[in-house]
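Cont'd.
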Amino acid sequence: MEFFLIIISAIFVNNILLAQFLGICPFLGVSNKLSTAVGMSGAVCFVITLATVVTYLINSYLLVPFGLEFLQTIAFILVIAALVQTVEIVLKKTSPSLYQALGIFLPLITTNCAVLGVAITVVTKQFTFGGEAHMLNLGQAAVYALSTSVGYGLAMILFAGLREHLAQNDVPESFRGLPIALVTVSIMAMAFLGFSGMV
Amino acid sequence: MSKWSLITKGLIKDNPTFVLVLGMCPTLATTTSAMNGLEMGLATLFVLVLSNIAISLIAPVVPDKVHIPVYIVVIATFVTVLQLLMQAYVPYVYATLGLFIPLIVVNCIVLGRAEAYANRHCVLDSALDGIGIGIGFTLSLTVIGIVREILGNGSIFGCKFIPGDGILAFVMAPGAFMVLGYLMVLFNKYLKKQ
């Protein structure tokens, strides 16, 4: 039951893009075309889940025992950068087709604040899912990261679909490009606001 | 370019929010009130100036292949310093801004200025560039914060002048996107052409 609540909460109620404002730059940057949005979402999903598990382990077995929590920011960003690089190299060797699909998006992910944001959130924030507030354990953290990134993908792909239609419309000159996109996101965020209070 | 124009270019010509469209996450998330926007802007200004200075000093000796990781570590160091300082002296501000203080590390404005400006200019110019862009960012965030606070709460910097509740949506997520979108329209229409 608790896993179910985590999944619903992370995908819909606290959607990472539309309610928490993490990872907005790539969201606005690559949502022009549906196909690139799908590629980016796949890469983000993969990296967020992996990075959260690795940083969770590093935090609980390396930083906390030695009292080094103040190094979290530096340690996590280095781990994420190294991880993204490793994933890129491994994919290039083992699965060239997947590398072709995700390739150009991987380097961009290091500076996607959603990755660092989720990694820091799971080790610092207490969650309440039905019961009393508590820190997430490793399994819950992994599920939280995976469902958060599914929420990222969902919002991104929905928005890319909308934006492809926007491009064909006659938009007033000062609204062209980002402003009209932001107003569209705002209306999408209103729709997602309807989920609040569910969990 | 004169020293003065280094500072003023961040306001209109190279405005980080409305022209360069960088650092959108803190821009949207922390501008629920004018004060929060101002505080977030100042926190970013602090990191931006110090990292610009440090990077312009070390840039000549950093090998080209590893320059991005090195810059990120430098920026992360200053962010950690800022975190510790804020926890010690202004803990309530740190609590409001929360996650977005450590996330200054991945704010594209900071790495962007290091990469585009500080690594090939002298220390003084880099510091002034950091101040200019930082002030531009702070002002943009404050303006967005003021608009959202007036519409959402009927107040400016906490001084209530419209009785009643205000439009709650402007304090929540949809309002952030909408206010930024419409301010960008006004900026494009009246300021960008000059």
